[in-house]
Task: structure prediction
Amino acid sequence: MERRHLYGATFGIVGLLLAGIQLVHATEQTDVPVAVVVDGVPFAMLGLSLSFAGYWLATSAEYDPDLPRIAAWATGGTLLFGAVAALMLFSQRVATGTLQRVTYMTIDGVTVGAIAGTLVGLYDARSQHDRRRLQRERDRTEAFARKAADLNNYGRALAQSSSVEEVGAFCVQAVSSLLGYDQTAYVEVGPDGERIVSSTVAAVPDDALRTQARNAVQHDDVVRIHRADGATDSGQSASSGLSTVTLSIGLDGTEPLTGVLVTVGEIEDSLSSEDEQLLELLASHAGMVLDQLSRQNDSASGADESDA
Result:
């Protein structure tokens, strides 16, 4: 049984007990139906409201971390209102034979205190939930700012690259820095086959990386997550997540080559929108540099042909 189910069941049972006690007390005090309705039904409804709160807590995982806080507020409200009601009655020098009335009033205070404490606890839990959500948003913003600064540095480094190998190495380092994945390969896919330019992958064979890179170029998405089976160094099959960042760039001016980053490891089923934007920017930076290198190679080849 999950914790929220236990707490919800406790609230529900207590609410039903209080509602039943209120109805019993109402019928014990009078036989007039109207008086029973006026005296017992409102407090019974408060008890049933507590049961409804228990059902809501049992079916909602939103406030699961705050269940002890809500229970503490409900318990505190119950004890406080019950104690205040009892003290007020006893301070009035209740005569012998009226203790039953004191019990009725105390139960009324307990019922009101339980629902009041629960409401305060829910309000407090809501405040804590909003505070955690704001903290998560703040952490995401700060993390994105740090990653964007790192990406800017890698963009400057890529702009100074003089070869495809340097571009691949910087891209592999960027994926490790931005996402924390330390097993990434840069694969160049062309009509004649696939070439691994730079790689830090040790858990998956090169053939599997080439196959994954070839599959990646068949999709239009720049960032794509694909689940596949990889093989460990011992030859045993292991399930690995392959996250691909596809860079479609014409490198030689005749047949287009495609650069693909293949990341292997414990990868979530989906990346955050911020991480996808960063990877797309990385692809854009690398694409511009590779395009410049391709133009330089074409110019150099044309000059050599002219000299010949």
Summary: The two ends are 82 Å apart (CA to CA).
